[in-house]
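Work through this:
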Amino acid sequence: MPAETLPATIEVTTLGQFTVRRGGVLLPETVWGRASARRLFQYLLTFPGRFVARERLIAELWPVQAQERAARDFKVALNALHRALEPERAARARPVFVARQGSSYGLNPEALLWLDAQQFEAGLAAAAALESSSVAQARARYEAALTLYGGEFLPDALYEEWTTLRREQLSALFLSGATRLAQLLENAGEALAVELWCRRILALDRCWEAAYRLLMRAHSSLGNRPQAIRTYEQCRQALDEELGIPPLRETQRLFEEIVAAA
């Protein structure tokens, strides 16, 4: 396809909210034509880099319908999705953003499609790779990547089973990435920045014990040992209420050291 006829770039936000922009312009909800087209697109966004068999798509998105009816609804939803993403595409031209391989469908890896979840993952991987050569650059990449995490993956599809694993994967990546950034900030003596990132971690998972330890050390380094002790109590309470377990021995030793120093 000649460069001058390429469709506008599609930018998709899935973390914290679901929005789609074409050429920088936010698409209204009415663009989908039908809710099934929107759900089909969200399903494909959940499995970037993969082509999903038509039969599986139908089974996941139209599980209670008769096979013939579900197959017809899939075709209608797919056509509506093509129109939403490429309204100026010629009638018989091959779609650009949603591609077909045999009887399977997926996002075209060569299309101009920017997806926040993919950029988030790639940014964290790049940051980790930079740690051995430049801690300053690694920190900058961690911060840039973590900023993309605006919240849970596809929050308007919380009860769709096919989003669960992807949501958990991205959440775990944020927690581990933010923890690593906080550790680098601690090494640089930036206790206030450590506190900021630990607050963000615990807002997502109040049982993330590594964040409590980082926060305890940050408070202690700032001379606020009473707050460090309170942080340990918050950790102990959260673990007891949510999981029915005590803090790790590592956390207990840190608490004892802070109490002894006080």
Observations:
- The domain at 3-114 is CATH 1.10.10.10 (Arc Repressor Mutant, subunit A).
- The chain is about 60% helix and 10% strand.
- The chain has two domains: 3-114, 189-262.
- The two ends are 70 Å apart (CA to CA).
